[in-house]
Specification:
Elements (H helix, E strand, L loop, with lengths): L40 H20 L7 H10 L2 H16 L3 H22 L2 H12 L8 H16 L6 H29 L2 E4 L9 H13 L5 E4 L2 H10 L3 H12 L11 H17 L5 H6 L7 H30 L8 H13 L3 H4 L5 H16 L1 E5 L12 E7 L2 E11 L9 E6 L10 E9 L12 H19 L12 H12 L5 H7 L11 H9 L5 H18 L9 H12 L15 H4 L10 H18 L6 H12 L7 H9 L5 H7 L10
Parallel strand pairs: 5-7
Antiparallel strand pairs: 1-2, 3-4, 4-5, 6-7
Helix pairs in contact: 1-2, 1-3, 1-4, 1-5, 4-7, 5-6, 7-11, 9-10, 9-14, 13-14, 13-21, 16-17, 16-19, 17-18, 18-24, 21-22, 24-27, 25-26
Length: about 700
């Protein structure tokens, strides 16, 4: 169903609830974020639900013979009001999640699930779609229309359209129960992430001033003395990297890795047990052996076996590299390495081996400079230009900045960025759209956003971020580039498979460490001097450093995700399953999963990444191979390669099969050797 800035009929515009009124302002209208309140959502939802139901009834009961226009075209035009208000709601629950929004989320998430099931399982609607599907070869449709028809049909089948009435009722019940559980999981985790640990000046010895400043600001916000270390990755990792106090590191590490796993009111294990079991029951109802098979039916990998084969191909070299990294650290530490020691002593090894430390590089990664670097690179590659218009466009929080995006002098969209952590905002970094580009039923431009959780410093202090944070910034901006360059006709062909989604963002990370970006934008926050060539050289030499740790922490999470969702019955004790699975694959004892099951929001705050966390590796295989294409051209700024990447892969949404599109771009399937080489792992015997 289409996303739009104006609400659909039959509700009269003059009587529409506020959140369903057409957006006003420039560029086709913008969300009135400064006027949005929690109590405005229920009346808007009620009208939008009624409007969508009326639209679906009109399509299903149309006495005219089914045609592409009166069925598929009509579906693509439907639900504009609900898309508008639900998009706003999703943003508020991610970024401004007050108790009022949490209560709304609990109340309305099962109602949304019920509505979408009602549509997917409507027998009259499916009969009209199925009639077109069976006759598609004779309908004189263009390839894009055929693809949209086939994908619409297949999606409805996977959503239960062919089930009998009893099974449809059972499936609807499962989906509604899951919707409640997803919200419950998310809110429990959010409460755990809003906790903090106190620290004294003595305990913070070794921690850089910028990190201390952010911890002091967090303490001030909580009206505490000293320092407060918030239980989120962006606050925890710098402590684990720099704090000399080993006891503090252990305390912070334990609090972080045990989020959702403390046996208290925020414990998520029982919620996970229910989710996994219900997913298995749903897969069986829909004719799939496991939830993983169901989720992967519409991916590039298609089959869990292919995803597991790629993961295990990389797992062995990664574990071997961890052994080497640990041996190097133990020579310096003089004792065995525990998980809360890894980042600390890795930093010592980096300093010894490359004469390079994060404290040395961080003064050159000032946030505003890195933002400008990302925009400049997008301009060089794709012709995108960014002009800040903050203050002229409504925002939902004073920290949010807004940019108008143009290409060749033509308006492309608006880009919002929300960079700082705060209470009520979920952890991590992500990209979203408030409105997506499309040409049908009427043209509209994109409203995109990036959301980060950088630690906000004290007043008038610079925001210095680590190289990893700068890489995250480029990653999320790569998602935004993907949507800003999109040029699709039908909204139903805008969304790519899960294991393609991370590909454009991972490709974009590569330009961060190019000499051009570092020379122009990696400037010392005090002197303005560019990063010295000697330091740039050291960074380049250290690119593959600590890849054992990074790969194992990620891959262990992806492997556990897949094996969990390959359980046919879905009966599981999360803690025991995690422990036993990691033991079976030889998880190094010095490392913990990047996302342990009790806090794995990718999997349990919704379905989207379940049995799909492997997709980062699948996408990175294409990313490494794509970067090799740029390198092989003689310049990583090669406009010819960038234009082909943009026109074949970035702008086309899902209008063609993504594997076919990749082969058109590269002339072959991606080669895993490029990924292994990029991570500094042996490539001997690597299969394509």
């Amino acid at each position: 169903m289409a996303q739009a800035q104006s609400a659909s009929q039959p509700a009269a515009q003059a009587q529409l609830p506020f959140l369903l009124q057409p957006w006003t302002g420039p560029h086709g209208g913008v969300p009135p974020w400064d006027k949005v309140q929690p109590e405005q959502f229920p009346p808007a939802f009620e009208v939008a639900f009624a409007d969508l139901r009326a639209e679906i009834r009109a399509i299903a009961n149309n006495p005219a013979a089914p045609s592409f226009d009166n069925v598929i075209g009509a579906l693509e035009s439907s639900g504009q009001g609900l898309d508008q208000v639900s998009g706003m709601f999703n943003l508020m629950t991610s970024n401004m999640n007050s108790p009022a929004y949490q209560e709304l989320d609990r109340d309305w998430s099962p109602k949304f699930a019920a509505l979408y099931d009602e549509i997917s399982m409507d027998p009259k609607l499916f009969a009209r779609i199925d009639a077109l599907y069976q006759a598609r070869a004779s309908l004189k449709l263009n390839p894009m229309q055929i693809r949209l028809l086939e994908r619409t049909h297949d999606s409805m089948v996977r959503s239960g359209a062919k089930l009998n009435d009893a099974d449809k009722a059972a499936l609807a019940g499962i989906n509604q129960e899951l919707a409640v559980l997803f919200t419950d999981f998310n809110q429990r985790l959010l409460r755990d992430e809003e906790t903090s640990l106190p620290a004294t000046e003595a305990q913070m010895k070794g921690v850089p001033d910028g990190v201390k400043s952010a911890a002091r600001a967090a303490a001030d916000e909580r009206k505490q003395a000293g320092y407060a270390i918030v239980n989120t990755r962006s606050a925890v990792d710098p402590i684990l990297t720099f704090a000399d106090d080993r006891a503090l590191r252990e305390k912070v590490w334990r609090a972080f890795v045990n989020r959702g796993d403390n046996g208290d009111g925020n414990d998520t294990n029982a919620v996970i047990e229910k989710i996994v079991k219900l997913r298995a029951e749903r897969a069986k109802l829909l004719g799939f052996p496991t939830h993983a098979n169901l989720r992967m039916a519409d991916t590039m990998a298609k089959d869990p076996v292919r995803a597991e084969a790629l993961m295990m191909r990389v797992w062995g070299p990664a574990v071997a590299r961890v052994g080497e990294e640990v041996a190097d650290m133990e020579k310096i530490a003089g004792h065995s390495i525990e998980p809360w020691d890894y980042l600390y002593y890795a930093e010592k090894v980096r300093k010894a081996r490359y004469d390079l430390s994060e404290a040395e590089t961080k003064p050159y990664f000032e946030l505003n400079n890195m933002i400008e670097a990302s925009y400049w690179a997008a301009g060089q590659l794709y012709g995108l230009e960014f002009k800040e218009v903050t203050g002229t466009i409504p925002v939902f929080h004073p920290d949010v900045r807004v940019y108008e995006v143009t290409r060749g002098g033509k308006h492309v969209g608006l880009f919002y960025r929300d960079d700082f952590a705060r209470s009520g905002k979920r952890s991590g970094a992500w990209m979203t759209t408030y409105r997506s580009q499309r040409l049908f039923p009427v043209p509209q431009t994109v409203l995109a956003s990036n959301n980060n959780n950088f630690a906000k410093p004290g007043a008038n202090e610079p925001v210095l971020i680590s190289y990893d944070d700068a890489e995250t910034l480029f990653h999320e901006f790569g998602h935004a580039i993907h949507y800003l360059l999109q040029h699709v006709t039908y909204p139903g062909l805008a969304h790519t498979p899960r294991d393609f989604v991370e590909y454009p963002s991972q490709v974009n990370e590569n330009w961060l460490l190019t000499r051009e970006v570092l020379d122009k934008f990696a400037r010392h926050y005090k002197t303005g001097e560019p990063m010295p060539k000697a330091l740039v050289d050291k960074i380049e030499k250290a690119q593959a450093f600590n890849q054992g740790y990074k790969t194992v922490s990620y891959l262990s999470s992806a492997i556990v995700d897949m094996k969990l969702h390959l359980l046919p019955g879905g009966v599981v004790n999360p803690d025991a399953f995690e422990r036993d699975t990691l033991a079976a694959i030889g998880m190094p004892k010095q490392i913990v999963m990047r996302h342990r099951l009790p806090q794995f929001s990718h999997l349990f705050s919704g379905d989207s990444y379940s049995a799909g966390y492997y997709s980062y590796l699948w996408s990175e295989t294409m990313d490494a191979d794509t970067w090799a294409a740029f390198e092989e051209s003689g310049s990583v700024w090669n406009k010819g390669v960038a234009d082909r990447f943009r026109t074949i892969l970035l702008s086309t949404g899902n209008e063609t099969d993504r594997a076919d599109a990749y082969r058109e771009f590269r002339g072959r399937d991606p080669d895993v050797k490029a990924l292994l080489k990029k991570r500094g792992f042996p490539t001997d015997g690597a299969a394509k």
